[in-house]
Amino acid sequence: MGGPEGVIVVREFDRNKDLWGVEDVERRCEVGPSGKLSLFTDLLGDPICRVRNSPAFLMLVAEMGKEKEIVGMIRGSIKTATCGKKLCRNAKTNANKNEHIKHVPVYTKLAYILGLRVSPSHRRMGIGFMLVRRMEEWFRENGAEYSYMATDNDNLASVTLFTQKCGYSKFRTPSILVNPVFAHRVPISSRVSVICLDPSEAEILYRRRFSTTEFFPRDIDSVLNNKLSLGTFLAVPRGTFTAESFPGSDRFLSDPPESWAVLSVWNCKDVFALEVRGASYVRRTLAKTTRMVDRAFPWLHLPSVPELFKPFGLHFMYGIGGEGPDAVKLVKALCGYAHNLAKACGCGVVATEVSSREPLRLGIPHWKKLSCAEDLWGMKRLGEGYSEGSVGDWTKSKPGLSIFVDPREI
To answer: What is the architecture of the domain spanning 4-80+108-173+378-389?
Structure first.
């Protein structure tokens, strides 16, 4: 592009010489519409932290001119995940035993793009396009069949880049639900028992009940055993099971109670910090006032707004699922449990991401002003040489009720 001073080089990130330049670009790139509340992310000195726990990952940077100034970056990861389901060969034999074993997951090698940043002073130069194309080359070299990305529906520049220039189709529109962590513990209903499952029991439950859910990671055991996974919690009606009487996931699923729910918690607080910027003086004052009133009258248990205008931590709830007429109520109890866990760890918010069609979302407390009703996931098939398989072209499939959001990609 032009003379030597305008040449752009895309290469792999080198921590020893790129760290300052990457952090500088991150500081100048806000997430959110200009002129409104924006969310800034502090990666705590580790630019690769958001993909580091994936089975395979890469970070690229774009540098420009003789000074080799960092003007952009992109991260990518690859895993194997569920793209559909097919009828099990022995389904007819087992149909009378357990209807859930009629289908088995169809897996695909799936790539994910996140953290695309281009310096504000170097936009509209094709740098973002170059970074995406280079990352897709790495995806193909490593056998990925599909690539997907997530962006704010209101981020027109990002939507245009991926859908009009890079060939991504609008695929799913999940909801990001965020709830503040208040100064007081959330009371858990006395009608609910919450049981903490060890990773092996959690794996059995997830594989038997949720492995056919879109985006379910085949290496769910790696997720559950990761040091950032704070636990998997099962809610059942009081009087059915306790931690001491829980028979194990296999026996539990063979004869479950009428209603139950499950979720896991991921500790993003040790990976990155968030900060809300762009709030007006009035909004900051109102938030501060709620905290002052709460401190003055703690017995009222007022929902004071936590300090979100300074760096704060996040816990992410994933693997949310359940069955039965009271599953929504049980999910609400689990969200309260997760809130109290986040409070004990000093977090500012708890969050999750679920399908816009997810029936259990009714049990997930959240503030609309902090949440995103429609996040945009774009999908692209990376090669035409792949077999159509049991689900055909995944990019053309209809959405299911649920998705499984991998916490390693938050």
So the answer is: 3-Layer(aba) Sandwich (3.40)
pLDDT at residue 4, rounded to an integer? 45
pTM summary value: 0.90
Compute the distance between CA of residue 48 and CA of residue 58 in angstroms, rounded to an integer: 8
Residues in the chain: 410
Residue 226 has what pLDDT? 98
Count the neighbouring beta carbons within 10 Å of the beta carbon of residue 108: 20
Q: Does domain 177-363 have CATH number 3.40.630?
A: yes
Three-class DSSP category at 363: helix
| Residue type for position 351 | A
Comparing C-alpha atoms, which of 362, 366, 356, 364 is closest to residue 325?
362
**In angstroms, what CA-CA distances link 251 with 68, 197, 245, 247?**
60, 14, 12, 6
Strand, helix or coil at 153? coil
- Name the stretches of the chain with pLDDT < 50: 1-4, 33-35, 92, 95-100
According to DSSP, residue 219 is labeled T
For residue 42, the model assigns a pLDDT of 87
- H or E segment to which residue 281 belongs: helix 281-296
Q: Do domains 4-80+108-173+378-389 and 177-363 have the same CATH topology?
A: yes
Q: Two tokens at 257?
A: 């109670």
Q: Can you give the pLDDT at residue 40?
A: 81
Interatomic CA distance for residues 195 and 183, integer angstroms: 24
Q: Where are the domains of the chain?
A: 4-80+108-173+378-389, 177-363
In the beta sheet, which residues pair with residue 314?
A: 349
